[in-house]
Amino acid sequence: MSKNHNRRQRKKLHIGEFQEMGFSATARFIPDTPAAQREAILDAFIAFIEENGMLAAVSTSTDFDAFIISDAPRGSTTEDQRSAVHSWLSTQNCVTDSVVGEMVDAWHASP
């Protein structure tokens, strides 16, 4: 985006001072974890995310992947929230190989 954008355009495009940051979180369930227990962990994860001012898009099967953003109308997740997610995942006894990614642009993240 080489064009100089005015404030309204930067806000609409979520760039500059309006950039919003998020992060990914992945984990693997321990093999043979019952489906009901996996479901309970995911429900607890979503409740934890919401209680801490975040929203998540989660997909799951034997592993789960999430992308986490702030629940503020315009805002970014914080390093404290990122650390809290990492701590929460590492305390779950049926989850292994948890990885919390670096902060990335939630609107324009490159693959």
Please, could you describe this protein's structure?
There is one protein chain. This protein has 111 residues and is of the alpha+beta class. It has a single domain (18-105), classed as Alpha-Beta Plaits (2-Layer Sandwich). Helix content is 32%, strand content 29%. The chain has three helices and five strands, in the order αβαββαββ. Strands 1, 2, 3, 4 and 5 form a five-stranded antiparallel beta sheet that branches. Strand 2 and strand 3 form a beta hairpin. The longest helix is centred in the middle third of the chain and has 17 residues, at 35-51. It is elongated.
Key features of this structure:
111 residues, alpha+beta, Alpha-Beta Plaits, 5-stranded antiparallel sheet, 3 helices, YggL_50S_bp, DUF469 domain-containing protein
